[in-house]
């Protein structure tokens, strides 16, 4: 039965049966056309790093183009997240986003703003990356160690500018978490994403940045930046000599920047199942593994059930941190 015939039959059925028939048709045919993968940041950040090789691999697996759509509207990724939340739950609009997904609605509530979206509108599909954030400064900066940085910041409260991907985005929360624990005040300069913030550090517009290893490694290897500390619980292979904040006595400073694929919570189960299968295949492909390993951010795959639990636990910790930080600009 073709689509026109199916719709004629559906018109004679009760509403529940119409809905079921429509989903059944869509489920068996998906994907019939190109898929859009929204990245709520400009190119150059962790979400974009994950999205591009994954999109290419999914194209080969699903047989349809997967178009990466960078929604560089700022607001820490809130604008792109909201656009994905409002999309039809038909599998043709996906979201590759970061851990700030859960933080941004809570930040809106802190300022008595209606949230642009709710986390409940999304269904986790797969985690792709999960890296501790690193504190980077220009290679020309006077600080050789984290203690140098802290000592200088205490002498000049509010005068050392740092960049972020926007208020309450991943890079902002990590830096404010550190600043609160160190008892220092820094100057927050928000950008439209991690890529522009990284460029600002390279140009000297800002003097510090929290970012993922994959977006920093080449710059550090080229001698353009220096890293002072690692927000993770352990040292990482791509920067084995870099101490953690815990190593340096900051026991409550721990932050990870993960990237994961999400769909709408109302996505029909058969499409979600096919998407999960495709993602499990994609993350094992050389076209995903090689570029991420080269960037210093190896695949950290989790399938939907495990990823859902991870998101819930990580979100609770980050929301608690945001409430502790309170209102900051």
Automatic annotation (TrEMBL):
Give a yes or no for keyword Amino-acid biosynthesis in this entry.
no
Q: Which Pfam families match?
A: TctC
Please name the CDD domains in this protein's record.
PBP2_Bug_TTT
Taxonomy, superkingdom: Bacteria
Signal peptide bounds: 1-26
List keywords of the entry alphabetically. Answer: Receptor, Signal
Family stated for the protein in its record? Belongs to the UPF0065 (bug) family.
Matches recorded under PANTHER family: BLR1237 PROTEIN (PTHR42928:SF5), TRICARBOXYLATE-BINDING PROTEIN (PTHR42928)
- Name-wise, this protein is Tripartite-type tricarboxylate transporter, receptor component TctC
Q: Write down the species.
A: Bradyrhizobium canariense
């Amino acid at each position: 039965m073709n689509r026109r015939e199916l719709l004629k039959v559906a018109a004679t059925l009760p509403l529940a049966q119409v809905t079921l028939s429509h989903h059944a048709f869509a489920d068996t045919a998906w994907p019939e056309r190109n898929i859009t993968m929204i990245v709520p940041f400009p190119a150059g950040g962790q979400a974009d790093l994950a999205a591009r090789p994954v999109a290419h691999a999914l194209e080969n697996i699903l047989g349809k183009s997967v178009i990466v759509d960078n929604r560089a509207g700022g607001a820490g990724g809130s604008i792109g997240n909201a656009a994905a939340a409002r999309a039809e739950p038909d599998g043709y609009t996906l979201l590759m986003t970061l851990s700030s997904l859960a933080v941004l609605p809570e930040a809106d509530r802190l300022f008595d703003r209606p949230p642009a979206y709710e986390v409940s509108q999304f269904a986790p599909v797969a985690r792709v990356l999960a890296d501790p954030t690193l504190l980077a400064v220009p290679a020309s900066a006077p600080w050789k160690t984290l203690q140098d940085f802290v000592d200088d910041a205490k002498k000049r409260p509010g005068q050392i500018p740092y960049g972020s991907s926007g208020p309450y985005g991943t890079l902002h929360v990590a830096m404010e978490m550190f600043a609160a624990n160190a008892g220092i005040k820094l100057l927050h300069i928000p950008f439209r994403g991690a890529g522009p913030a990284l460029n600002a550090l390279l140009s000297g517009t800002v003097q510090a940045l929290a970012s993922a290893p994959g977006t920093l490694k080449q710059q550090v290897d080229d001698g353009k930046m220096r890293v002072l500390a690692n927000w993770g619980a352990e040292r990482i292979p791509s920067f084995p000599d870099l101490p953690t904040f815990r190593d340096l006595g900051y026991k409550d400073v721990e932050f990870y920047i993960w990237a994961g694929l999400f769909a709408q919570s109302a996505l029909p189960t058969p499409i979600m199942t096919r998407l999960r299968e495709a993602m499990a295949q994609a993350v094992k492909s050389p076209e995903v593994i090689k570029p991420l390993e080269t960037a210093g951010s190896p695949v950290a795959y989790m399938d939907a059930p495990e990823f859902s639990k991870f998101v819930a636990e990580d979100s609770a910790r980050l929301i608690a941190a945001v409430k502790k930080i309170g209102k900051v600009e």
